[in-house]
Amino acid sequence: DAKTTQPTSMDCAEGRAANLPCNHSTISGNEYVYWYRQIHSQGPQYIIHGLKNNETNEMASLIITEDRKSSTLILPHATLRDTAVYYCIVRVDDSSASKIIFGSGTRLSIRP
Amino acid sequence: DTGVSQDPRHKITKRGQNVTFRCDPISEHNRLYWYRQTLGQGPEFLTYFQNEAQLEKSRLLSDRFSAERPKGSFSTLEIQRTEQGDSAMYLCASSRGGGSVTEAFFGQGTRLTVV
Q: In Å, how far from its chain's centre is CA A95?
């Protein structure tokens, strides 16, 4: 699986949009971009994933650049409960039985 | 609750003792993963199963560690002769797999403290 690069930490004001970047310059054509987050003392939680089109769900939006070398996770209206470590992961199609490799993630702090 | 469940949530053991953790995945999920996480680090992959077959093991899984999934449902992770360095959160996850891109669902983890 391709490696990803994320900032170590970020902060955002409550109610504002939180934009978390991720670089994955060595991503292959069959690798998807996944985002998970981990709130303190809990297991990681799936947020969203995409291949090349932008995706949106009830939790967040995922913007993938046209060359697929980077992406941004957007939390449109951050709340204090969004304080967590956010992991950007790239992995092949699940039919290849790929494991999920986590990096160090971005520690997002939401300030009141 | 139909999520991934892990038991126990916390375990304190003396160095040299054996410990066993259990993971019950979401019932229709055929893939099951074990991870280890130490403070301030992301989860580290240990091993995963497709049904009852153990398909991959990390180099982190020393010979003191063994994982099983005998009937393709629940899984156990055993650590023999525990060491202080084994202190960590042990996470289990499951996913459907089998040809479609799916997310993995994680349990709350078992926190092991070796004293």
A: 21
